[in-house]
Automatic annotation (TrEMBL):
Protein name: Fanconi anemia group D2 protein
Family designation: Belongs to the Fanconi anemia protein FANCD2 family.
Assigned GO CC terms: condensed chromosome; nucleus
The species this protein was found in: Salmo salar
Gene Ontology process terms (BP): double-strand break repair involved in meiotic recombination; homologous chromosome pairing at meiosis; interstrand cross-link repair; mitotic intra-S DNA damage checkpoint signaling
Length: 1451
């Protein structure tokens, strides 16, 4: 301690020579001792020699002086020592003098510090301004170097634990620095050994200094040895990780040693301190080569656990709550900041590596790509993708974007990983915000719907996690998306903005002015999007917290300007905007003092009612505008919780106006002038007609026709003269119904008379005479039917949820009315070409009806249209309940009479499919599907069991079941099936697929799926009923569907219902949301319903068990499918259910067996004919692909069809089918051929490539597989000789080239190294393949002769592949030292029949056959080359003495 104290005092006095004497006087005792030592030093050999060489030793804190240049000093001293008579003993004396001189710490310090030039002699010009220290100059003298180094190493332990002095001088570090950059080291190996010995005993600080200095001390020859020692040290002591890696970075190492070191470093990665991690990662990434980049990066990615570097959000929250307790705040903040800084440095290391090394960036992409499960993906994956995207290299940017999309599409990168990354690493990710924003934009603009939600999550999390600048950029980018006009992009961006307003209203209020800018681009938005936009803006401007009050005036101006427009499009925007503003202003809120029974202030209530009055007055000028206003207001009442006073105000005015406008009291007579005789129709009430009410539809439509073309505003201003349009009937009733539901908590008792009340229409006998009517009369009749059907649809919407049995019966009856009226409408439309129906959905793009010609709505196709639209069944006969029959009115009895007539005339009555007219029907709510729970009772059971027990229940008839299932399937297809978001074409089409789904769009796909799950037991019951029906029907008719006595009408309806039920289940299970973790419970519940039909105890079963039982349940229906299309639906459903499990292979065989059974079954129509046509072929192709994709052995399956089924077809009669495969006939041959060629080409691409390391068994197995594939290919190519039509040739040319390319890429490498061991197998394979390639060559010639561009488009690429095949075989022979076996001959151009094409002349002889000069090695091949300059180039075959190849001319 005394010595330490003395040295510290010396350190304090370490100053220039003019140091004050007062400081020296404090250490008088020390000064006398120093002077005595200095005198001794001067008298010693050491002092004398130094003085003579030009160095003056100074005492105390004064630096030693040098009078000459250091090189001169070293030369003089060396000469002086060598010339001494006592040499070499004088050297030891000199070192002894040195040791005694540096005994004093102050002198030792002076010797370590640089010498200063001596200025007193006046020759300072010869001395450099900077000189080395005395000890370093002595180290530069070779004869002294080893001894001085030993002296220094002996001196160093004295200062080992002292640390830095008060002046910041660290003696151990300065000693080590003396050894750096010496011109020459006498014994580098010994020095390295001493240094490592010192490292083993020194403190950590000195160890770090020494290790870091090693590359600057040692010569290159010692780098390898020292690296191995450091490598061993690294594994023992992780505290030295950073200095050792710093040293490694500067050492000159061989690639092998560097790889060895890297492996050791990688092994210690998990034990490295967090602050050392950046250095470790940087070293690893900068030490990789192109050959091992992927392996190293994969290992690094696996061991780099950034999740452990940052506290979980829960702990962060708990620590933040503790910040008020003492010093915890600073401690937590520093710890959190330190961890974030370390992660940032790690990412910077990765960034520098990928920026300057292309192989590293590609390795990272490949490593992330190789991860195949969502659970294996880590935070580092996302961060690296952001880093790669942020680099300037285009390949990294594009690669990162591609990999991210692929991973998101596969469901491997999910929202949970994004949330974890943003929550834990927001500070780090802030630096990569531009890349995050660019990736989010790209994902949101993607046409693939699977990746769009992740882009939305990135936007939302960026807004939540980052600062105000980033928030502004996020909002600006989302606004850009909205203004782009691309449908899917706009929807998602608006949804995100609405979500941000809900989650972060105060932050979003700052950027309200940006969002308001979208109002300038409303021309590109659909009505649904405009509704979302105004919902968003009105929430900001008029929300309860009033953050965006600065845009309120702008909102009022825009709304009033649009409302006053005479252009329908802009008026529609104004109505939508005004209603949404009312929703925000009039929303229920906490009680205020100046409200009158509600929750709104008086002034706000006045503004709301005034705005509603304004909208109403502005919309009265157009019936479409008025109907839109009613629909929008109804939607507002349904979705928003309005203030009670506002709700009451709306309800009161609606009820009064509806009664006045549309309802009349029934009197004894119906007065008025109408185009057709008036008649009360469809009355379901028991009371007398005179005491009831009716909907005055005929009067409204007649008045509307009379005033057609007049301006509405000129018809009158007061209420008594107000004109009412029938267009408003259904929308107004919907608004009335929803107001009543809100005010009476779902009870519709006040308006229940409207469910059963009659309509004033005309007798529907007039439909029978529609062809004799004038065109205006037919159009009037069509309008009447459309309005009646839409009224009934809204009535069903209103009362479908009522529990009263009588109301349920009336609802079912109204459904029967709808199905009956639709059959009338089909016939009337067929007689009225060019008719434009009245609008029913008013929020579409167009506000005018579009004329639909009869050709555009022509005959029904396929499963959608063939599901019971052409219904001729009466309203009552389609029901299965006899109690309803007893309650029929006279009108209904008349209706039944009409239906009986229709049965007779059914075959002669043409009808138009209503598929094209769907946008002109009112939308059915999801709640209507609950009517399905009424069940199904088929007509045959009704005829045999018509007694009182059955009358107590309300049952659906087959026609109504099909009607509801059709609607349900369309809804699921719209909501659950993700359609690609495509950009709007230049010429925008007139049809909008979203028309008729306005209410559905307000529900999330999860809500729709949950609704399906609730209905699933009912759907299963209907499915079982259909199954039972066909199960009893087939044995009765000996399995023939066209047996006598079969009710064809019932059979068609139940077949349609069967198919629709399977399609509904398939669409439900195909929902992509089921693959997301948050919906796993819903999937389990869905499977539980199916499994529960087979086995009890659903909740206790595991997911795999549920899938197993569900699969078995659905498999039971295979025996009763009545048509091929239904068989396909069942196969697709089974495949989809199996995909939901983790063990798909378990069900593949069963699915394949079922599909094969369907393919081997003969299918016929109800008339007994064989199924045929384009739709049948398309269904067959899909079913065949399911079979071939699920079968275990694809090659065997192809050979079975091509080798057995097709020969049977060739040997059968002209119109017959294959005996084994009844679905295979001459009309469906192309379907089978295309399916087999496609799956064969896919199968060979999946054959693993051969490797030299493969065992003999593995190689033999691969050769066998290729032999089977080539044999199948040969069979299929040869079929072109029989089926030589153009489509078959096109398929063969296309897939033939693909097969050949796969063979060149995967098959030929296998033949290269298996030729010697398996030469017979190789020869057989090539011999068979040669026959196929020769046939392909003939097909190329045939295509040229025919000059068919469809075929000749394939020829150049195919010829190129054939030529490559020739030279590839030659290369294989050369590789195996058999090049002499390669012979070249001429191949003549021939057509499919083998006849020579005479337009070209052969050179040389006909095709040659040549023997191989190698008696023990046999091979053969062919050469196909393209024609050039009119010359024929041809074929080469090499073969053994005993082998023959059939000449082409013999084909």
């Amino acid at each position: 301690m005394m010595r330490k104290k003395r040295r510290s005092s010396v350190d304090k006095s370490a100053a220039p020579p003019d140091v004050s004497k007062s400081k020296k006087s404090r250490t008088t005792g020390h000064q006398s001792k120093t002077t005595a030592q200095e005198d001794t030093s001067i008298d010693s050999v050491f002092g004398q020699f130094l003085h003579e060489a030009g160095v003056v030793l100074r005492q105390g804190s004064t630096s030693n002086e040098i009078a000459v240049d250091q090189v001169v000093f070293q030369k003089r001293l060396q000469q002086r020592l060598k010339k001494s008579p006592r040499y070499p003993g004088i050297v030891q004396e000199f070192i002894t003098g040195l040791e005694s001189h540096i005994e004093d710490p102050e002198r030792f310090r002076n010797c370590l510090l640089p010498c200063v030039p001596r200025l007193a002699d006046g020759d300072s010009s010869s001395v450099s301004s900077f000189q080395e220290s005395l000890l370093r100059m002595l180290l530069g003298i070779e004869m002294l170097q080893v001894l001085v180094i030993n002296t220094l190493f002996e001196k160093l332990p004295e200062f080992m634990f002292d640390g830095a002095g008060e002046d910041g001088l660290n003696i151990p570090r300065v000693i080590v620095n003396q050894l750096k950059w010496l011109d020459r080291i006498i014994d580098s190996k010994e020095l390295a050994g001493k240094l490592m010995q010192l490292v083993s005993v020194a403190s950590v600080e000195i160890q770090r200094d020494i290790i870091t200095s090693l590359p600057e001390i040692l010569e290159d020859s010692q780098h390898s040895d020292i690296a191995r020692e450091l490598n061993s040290l690294l594994q023992e002591n992780t505290q030295l990780t950073v200095p050792i890696l710093d040293a490694f970075s500067s050492l000159n190492l061989s690639s092998t040693l560097l790889a060895e070191v890297r492996v050791s470093v990688m092994a210690t990665l998990s034990a490295v301190h967090l602050e050392d991690l950046p250095v470790v990662v940087k070293f690893i990434l900068h030490s990789i080569s192109s050959s091992d980049a992927l392996e190293v990066v994969c290992d690094l990615r696996k061991k780099l656990e950034l999740e452990l570097c940052v506290l979980p959000p829960v702990l962060q929250a708990s620590q933040s709550r503790m910040k008020n307790k003492g010093t915890t705040e600073s401690c937590n903040t520093s710890a959190s900041s330190s961890s974030q800084d370390s992660v940032a440095l790690v990412l910077d290391g990765i960034k520098s590596a990928v920026r300057f090394q292309k192989t590293t960036s590609e390795a990272w992409l490949k490593a992330i790509e190789n991860v195949d499960t969502a659970e294996d993906h880590k935070v580092i994956d996302l961060l690296v993708l952001f880093i790669l995207h942020s680099t300037n290299a285009n390949h990294s940017r594009r690669g990162a974007e591609r990999v991210l999309k692929v991973k998101v599409r596969a469901g491997q990168i999910q929202e949970a990983l994004l949330q974890k990354t943003f929550r834990g690493y927001a500070q780090v990710m802030r630096g990569y915000f531009p890349s995050i924003l660019a990736l989010a934009q790209s994902l949101l603009r993607s046409p693939d719907p699977c990746v769009v939600p992740i882009g939305g999550h990135m936007y939302r999390l960026s807004f939540t996690a980052f600062d105000s600048y980033c928030q502004q950029e996020v909002v600006g980018s989302l606004v850009t998306h909205v203004c782009s006009g691309v449908g899917g992009e706009v929807d998602v961006a608006l949804e995100l903005l609405c979500g941000l307003v809900t989650e972060k209203p105060s932050e979003m209020a700052l950027y309200a002015i940006f969002v308001k800018g979208i109002l300038d681009y409303m021309d590109n938005l659909t009505p649904q999007q405009i509704r979302r936009l105004f919902h968003l803006l009105s929430g900001l401007a008029f929300g309860q917290q009033q953050q965006g009050t600065h845009i309120q005036d702008d909102m009022h101006i825009v709304v009033r300007k649009q409302l006053s427009s005479t252009v329908p499009k802009y008026k529609r925007i104004g109505i939508i905007g005004a209603v949404m503003v009312v929703g925000s202003m009039g929303a229920c809120r906490p009680k205020v003092e100046d409200s009158q029974g509600g929750t709104l202030p008086k002034e706000t209530f006045r503004q709301v009612t005034a705005l509603l009055e304004l909208v109403r007055s502005c919309s009265e000028s157009s019936p479409e505008a008025a109907a839109l206003y009613y629909d929008q207001l109804a939607n507002l009442v349904l979705t928003c919780t309005l203030d009670p006073l506002v709700q009451a105000w709306i309800g009161k005015s609606v009820l009064e106006d509806f009664q006045e406008d549309f309802v009349v009291d029934l009197g004894p007579d119906i007065t008025g002038s109408f185009p057709f005789p008036a008649c009360l129709m469809y009355n379901l009430d028991d009371e007398e007609s005179q005491g009831g009410i009716a909907i005055n539809l005929l009067q409204l439509l007649s008045d509307d026709l009379q005033h057609k073309g007049e301006l509405w505003s000129k018809t009158g201003n007061n209420k008594t003269q107000r004109r009412v349009s029938p267009l408003c009937l259904s929308p107004f009733f919907r608004l009335l119904r929803l107001c009543e539901e809100q005010q009476h908590q779902g009870d519709l008792e006040e308006i229940d008379a409207l469910l059963g009340c009659p309509l004033i229409l005309t007798d529907m006998d007039v439909v029978e005479k529609s062809e004799s009517l004038s065109k205006p009369e037919r159009e009037f009749l069509c309008c009447l039917l459309f309005h009646t059907i839409n009224w009934f649809r809204e009535v069903v919407n209103a009362f479908c949820s009522q529990k009263d049995p009588e109301m349920k019966m009336k609802v079912v009856t109204r459904l029967q009315n709808i199905t009956y009226l639709q059959t009338l409408l089909e016939r009337t439309l067929a007689a009225t070409p060019g008719y434009a129906p009245p609008l029913a959905n008013f929020d579409g793009e167009s506000t005018e009806g579009v004329p639909l010609s009869s050709s555009s709505a022509a005959p029904k196709k396929g499963k959608k249209e063939g599901t019971g639209k052409k219904r001729k069944a009466p309203a009552k006969n389609s029901s299965a309940d006899s109690s309803q029959l007893e309650e029929g009115t006279e009108a209904e009895e008349t209706q039944q009479d009409h239906a009986e007539k229709e049965k007779v005339q059914e075959a002669t009555r043409p009808g138009v499919s209503l598929v094209s007219y769907r946008p002109f029907f009112r939308e059915l709510d999801m709640e209507v599907l609950s009517v399905l729970q009424c069940g199904l009772l088929s007509r045959s059971l009704l005829d045999s069991e018509l007694h009182s027990k059955v009358r107590e229940e309300v049952q659906l008839g087959p026609a109504e079941l099909v009607f509801l299932l059709e609607d349900m399937w369309r809804k699921l297809e719209f909501s659950l099936t993700a359609a690609p978001a495509k950009r709007v074409p230049f010429f925008k089409g007139k049809t909008d697929k979203s028309v008729g789904f306005s209410h559905l769009q307000q529900k999330s796909p999860k809500d729709i799926a949950a609704c399906c799950v609730q209905l699933l037991p009912t759907l299963c019951t209907h499915l079982e009923n259909c199954h039972n029906h066909f199960q009893t029907l087939l044995p009765e008719n000996q399995g023939v569907v066209d047996a006598s006595g079969l009710d064809v009408r019932e059979h068609q309806l139940l077949s349609s219902a069967y198919q629709l039920l399977l399609q509904v289940l398939h669409t439900t299970f195909s929902w992509s949301g089921f693959s997301q973790p948050e919906h796993r419970g819903l999937l389990k519940k869905t499977l539980g319903v199916l499994a529960g039909r087979l086995k009890e105890g659903g909740p206790e079963l595991t997911m795999d068990q549920l899938i197993k039982h569900s699969f078995e349940y659905l498999l039971n229906f295979h025996s009763t499918v009545p048509s091929l299309s239904i068989a396909l639906c069942l196969s697709q459903l089974l495949s989809t259910v199996a995909d939901r499990g983790g063990h798909q292979a378990t069900y593949r065989e069963q699915t394949a067996t079922l599909a094969r059974r369907f393919l081997c079954q003969e299918w016929g129509t109800t008339s007994g004919d064989r199924e045929k046509g384009p739709k049948h072929n398309e269904t067959l192709q899909t079913l065949l692909s399911i079979y071939l994709e699920h079968t275990d052995d694809v090659l065997k399956a192809v050979e079975e069809i091509a080798g057995e089924g097709i020969p049977e077809l060739l040997n059968s009669a002209k119109g017959a089918s294959s005996r084994t495969w009844p679905t295979l006939n001459r009309l469906t041959f192309l379907v089978f051929y295309k399916g087999m060629m496609g799956v064969l080409e896919k199968a060979v691409r999946k054959i693993p490539p051969g490797r030299n390391s493969d065992s003999t068994e593995v190689t033999s197995e691969k050769l066998l597989t290729w032999n089977l594939a080539v044999r199948d290919f040969h069979i299929l190519v040869n079929l072109v000789k029989v089926f030589d039509n153009r489509p078959v040739l096109n398929v063969c040319l296309k897939y033939g080239r693909l097969f050949l390319e796969s063979f060149l890429k995967l098959g030929m490498p296998l033949l290269d190294f298996s030729f010697k061991k398996h030469k017979e197998d190789v020869q057989s394979l090539l011999k068979t393949f040669q026959l196929s390639t020769r046939q392909l060559h003939h097909m190329c010639g045939h295509s040229k002769i025919r000059q068919d561009t469809t075929l000749t488009n394939h020829v150049p690429a195919l010829k190129k592949s054939l030529e490559q095949f020739v030279y590839r075989v030659k290369a294989m022979l050369t590789l195996n030292h058999c090049q002499e076996a390669f012979w070249l001959g001429n191949l003549k151009n021939r057509d499919l029949k083998g006849e020579e094409i005479l337009t070209q002349h052969s050179q040389g002889s006909d095709e040659e056959e040549a023997g191989s000069p190698l008696p023990q090695e046999q091979s053969e091949d062919e050469a196909h080359e393209s024609d050039s300059d009119g010359k024929k180039k041809g074929n080469r075959k090499a073969e053994g003495d005993d082998d023959e190849i059939t000449d082409d001319s013999d084909d």
